[in-house]
Specification:
Blueprint lengths: L1 E4 L2 E4 L9 H11 L13 H11 L12 E5 L1 H17 L19 H15 L7 H9 L9 E8 L4 H19 L4 E5 L6 H8 L5 E10 L17 H4 L5
Antiparallel strand pairs: 1-2, 3-4, 4-6, 5-6
Helix pairs in contact: 2-6, 3-7
Length: about 240
């Protein structure tokens, strides 16, 4: 199989992995995290294309490949983020998402996990529960992609069924891992789907596509305290049952 990376065609043996492949994949998985502060450093378009080209090899049922990607940088990104944040703040945080991302109401054990994640993040930033203005300001940073130089928006054909959402998840993870292999970081953001009208207006998204989520892409700020936060993962024994 041939694939274009870094502007050049390269041959890939789909039957064989290089000796150090396991270590590379493991490192990408273990160092991937949701980064919420980025450096003001450009990501070259060639790198973005390489990441997306690699991610396009994610599996999908019947090879539907249900993903549509809109990449915003520069002036377009600045105008988009300004409009998204303004819309979010003017709505007082009211959600306009076109689909349910979470169960409603959120029940255990998921409620405890959500709270531990949220309050753990805010504690890292020194934000107390009663500081409503600071909480709102931090949440509003979602809509500027945490100052990342690249904002990606993902849409899906409205006709797609539940299976294609599973496909999409594998595509998004593939983007995150391909980014890590290039020294880049990401933050997948369901919050971007809370302002679909703004996104569609600025990026000319056709009406037959639904805004699914966004993703920040760039170089992590190593000095930002917020990037020190990492939520706990469940042990294998918690979510797995083995049968022999």
């Amino acid at each position: 199989m041939a694939i274009r990376l870094k502007g050049e065609m390269m041959e890939v043996n789909q039957q064989k992995l290089s000796v150090d492949s396991a270590g590379t994949v493991d490192e990408a998985l273990l160092t991937r995290r949701s980064v919420r502060a980025f450096l003001n450093k450009e990501v070259e378009r060639e790198q973005i294309e390489d990441v997306l080209r690699l991610a396009s090899h994610a599996p999908s049922g019947s090879n539907f490949q249900p993903w549509h990607v809109y990449v915003a940088t520069g002036e377009t990104l600045a105008k988009l983020t300004h409009a998204m944040q303004a819309a979010y703040l003017s709505n007082n945080g009211d959600v306009m998402r076109e689909y349910d991302f979470y169960m409603n109401p959120i029940e255990e054990p998921y409620l405890s996990r959500r709270r531990a994640c949220g309050w753990g993040l805010y504690a890292t930033l020194g934000i107390e529960r009663h500081e409503k203005d600071r909480l709102a300001a931090q949440r509003a940073r979602n809509f500027v992609f945490f100052d990342a130089p690249v904002g990606m928006i993902f849409t899906i054909d409205r006709r797609m069924a539940s299976g294609s959402y599973i496909d999409y998840g594998m595509f998004l993870q593939s983007i995150a891992l391909a980014a890590r292999a290039r020294g880049l970081h990401t933050c997948a953001q369901a919050s971007i789907a809370e302002v679909p009208q703004i996104v569609c207006e600025h990026l000319n998204v056709p009406p037959d596509e639904m805004v699914l989520c966004g993703m920040a892409l760039g170089y992590a700020d190593p000095d930002a305290v917020v990037n020190e936060f990492s939520p706990k993962r469940q042990d294998v024994e918690v979510f797995t049952r083995f049968f022999n």
